[in-house]
Amino acid sequence: MGKKRAERITGDPGAVPHSAHTRASGSVELSTRMLVAALRGPHCPIMASALTVLLHGCWLAGHSGVWGGREFPKPTIWVSPSRVVALGGSVTIRCEGWYLGMEFFLRKAGPGHPNLQVQTVPDGTVAEFPIASVSREDGGSYTCDYRPITEQNRSSQLSDPVEIIVAAAPLDFTNANIARLGLGAVVLLVLGLILAEAFYSRPRGAP
Predict the structure, then answer these.
(1) Dihedral angle at the C-alpha atoms of 166, 167, 171, 173, nearest 10 degrees?
(2) Cis, bond preceding 81 (omega within 30 deg of 0)
(3) Which of 23, 45, 140, 205 has its Cα between 20 and 30 A from that of 188?
(4) Which residue pairs from 6-9 have beta carbons closer than 8 angstroms and sit at least 24 positions apart in sequence?
(5) pLDDT tens digit sequence for 34-56
(6) CA 118 to each of CA 16, 73, 91, 103, 150: distance values in angstroms, whole numbers, following the listed order
(7) What pTM, to 2 d.p., does this model score?
(8) Is 33 helix (H, G, I), strand (E, B) or coil?
(9) What pLDDT, in 10s, does the model give residues 144-200?
(10) What residues are paired with 128 via a beta bridge?
């Protein structure tokens, strides 16, 4: 009796007792029976439809990247110093993502424009797209997105749109232009005095 007890104590500590195997098998068998009974019951069509919808939703989630991590959060886009810029002025469109080592894409809505610009930012989260001299074609709506430099099959959602408004060029009141305007006014004044002198100095009754 003592020898058998010693063998039982010094046996493999990782071994699962036979009783545990029996209980586990019984639980699996019971679950299987319950599932079969439910599928054979009067609510089988309803359960089958629900199961179909559940499986279809899982398939869509996997292929859309919700569970697979294929989509990153959408970036933030803004224009500085202002969305309203004069013709010939300069602005910078910035797109900010959430992670380092990304490749950013700037997209302009509408045809007739090179609507895709690419900027790689390996050590930051903000990409800059400067426009040195704004033309009327640069006005419009812009969005941006990003993706990892090393994983081309994953990308972010598109950002909210931002619009650039191109205004008419303001009057240039530099010193040179003011001097030109003053000179023009003096010339007009002199011409007016000459015409007035000629008019009043002619003899009366002359045609």
Answers:
(1) -60
(2) yes
(3) 205
(4) none
(5) 544 555 555 545 554 555 545 44
(6) 60, 19, 17, 7, 15
(7) 0.51
(8) helix
(9) 999 999 988 899 999 999 999 999 866 556 767 777 788 888 888 888 888 877 777
(10) 94
- Report the CATH fold assignment for 72-167: Immunoglobulin-like (2.60.40)
Would you place residue 130 in the very low, low, confident or very high pLDDT band (cuts 50, 70, 90)?
A: very high
Contacts of 81 (CB under 8 A, 6+ apart): 91
Q: List the structure tokens of 95.
A: 């797109």
Domain ranges in the chain are 24-69, 72-167
Residues 95, 73: contact at Cβ < 8 Å?
no
Residue that the structure tokens 């046996």 belong to: 11
Sign of CA dihedral 154, 159, 163, 164: negative
Q: What are phi and psi of 43, to 5 degrees?
A: -95, 20
